[in-house]
Amino acid sequence: MELHDVWFVLIAVLWTGYFFLEGFDFGVGILTRLLARNRPERRVLINTIGPVWDGNEVWLLTAGGATFAAFPEWYATLFSGFYLPLLLILVCLIVRGVAFEYRAKRPEENWQRNWETAIFWTSLLPAFLWGVAFGNIVRGVKLDRNFEYVGNVWDLLNPYALLGGLVTLTLFTFHGAVFTALKTLGEIRVRARKLALWVGLVATVVALAFLLWTQADSGDGKSLVALIVAVVALVTALVANQTGREGWAFALSGVTIVAVVAMFFLSLFPNVMPSTLNGDWSLTVTNASSSPYTLKIMTWCAAIATPLVLLYQSWTYWVFRKRIGTQHIAPDAAAGAAH
Fold first, then answer.
1. How far is CA 234 from the centre of its chain?
2. Domain range holding 136?
3. pLDDT tens for residues 266-293?
4. CA neighbor of 290 nearest in space, from 83, 58, 65, 136
5. Which residue of 121, 201, 211, 296 is 20 to 30 Å from 234, comparing CA positions?
6. What count of other Cβ atoms lies within 10 Å of the Cβ of residue 24?
7. CA nearest 151: which of 237, 246, 85, 58?
């Protein structure tokens, strides 16, 4: 296996880790409107991801940096052609981080409600737009002979990509619901399990339609295996959720996300961005990669740094592993505008 193939796999792993971890972050943010009934419950939801959400976003920074260094042509074409949707995602992530930090800085009702609204929308929009972006990458876009995107933003809003957006939105919401059931106590835990059932059923239908469409276009045997794993894991996660095995439900919903992302990249390889105008104009792992020497240095750096990052992040999740409920919310935080 060539080094550019290795880095294609590593970038796929980084995106998989990002969607697995940030997926339940986005889901919990969406649930602040769909699940929580009052301010203390919204605070409980925010507290379940409070210690880890910023660490989860490191996976996105690493995936973007690895793409820039290993496949500069892919990075340039992707970020120029998808400029508006990626800019919207970036703005959402910035506002979302500010909302987490600023929400509790003042006790006024309007102040906290506005930041909670920001958390909801800046979780929902990226959850949808990431699916749209990857749907277009897998389907292919209008690249000319110079590997430049010659379409417009409306070309990106095609039925396949929009369906991909619904897949990530529903899967992340389900992932967040089972995470909430795993991390909370009392009534909110019960309601999270009930909501997870309905969101999971919708996600199953949408994901199956999208994955079958992807398989029909690619016809790849490896992606068929990923499709089967994704569907079986999602159905089993629903069963585990109904029987109260929240840990298994969360793990299996994560397996579903991993399988879906794996199917994206398996359907894509050896391309990194297919051209719908001419197959010879597609970006591949060969014509989009950096020099072998650059990839060799990157490989050594990744081999040293990656285990350290994984150990640190695992330690963080272990420290903040216990469940929380409204009884753990401090009186001043629960009272909100009463102050």
1. 16
2. 3-338
3. 888 888 999 888 888 888 999 888 888 8
4. 65
5. 121
6. 31
7. 85
Compute the distance between CA of residue 113 and CA of residue 64 in angstroms, rounded to an integer: 33
Secondary structure of the chain in the HEC alphabet? CCHHHHHHHHHHHHHHHHHHHHHHHHHHHHHHHHCCCCHHHHHHHHHHHCCCHHHHHHHHHHHHHHHHHHCHHHHHHHHHHCHHHHHHHHHHHHHHHHHHHHHHHCCCHHHHHHHHHHHHHHHHHHHHHHHHHHHHHHHCECECCCCCECCCHHHHCCHHHHHHHHHHHHHHHHHHHHHHHHHECCHHHHHHHHHHHHHHHHHHHHHHHHHHHHHHHHCCHHHHHHHHHHHHHHHHHHHHHHCCCHHHHHHHHHHHHHHHHHHHHHHHCCEEECECCCHHHCEECCCCCCCHHHHHHHHHHHHHHHHHHHHHHHHHHHHCCCCECHHHCCHHHHHHHHC
Burial of 204 (0-12, 13-18, 19+ CB in 10 A): buried
Neighbours of 1 (CB within 10 A): 7
Count of domains observed in the chain: 1
Note if the bond before 307 is cis, omega within 30 degrees. Answer: no
Phi, psi of 268 (to 5 degrees): -80, -45
Q: How far, in whole angstroms, is CA 120 from its chain's centroid?
A: 15
Q: Tell me: the pLDDT tens digits for 187-220?
A: 899 999 999 999 999 999 999 999 888 888 776 6
Q: What is the pLDDT of residue 338?
A: 41
pLDDT greater than 60 at residue 164: yes
Label residue 151 left, alpha or beta by phi (over 0 means left) and psi (-120 to 50 means alpha).
beta
Residue 93 · residue 57 · CB < 8 Å: yes
Tell me which residue has tokens 């795993």. 182
Nearest to 143 by CA among 87, 219, 73: 73
* Alpha-carbon distance values, 128 to 55, 121, 123, 309, 313 (Å): 21, 11, 9, 28, 26
Q: Which two tokens stand for residue 177?
A: 């619901």
Name the β-bridge partners of 184. Answer: 324
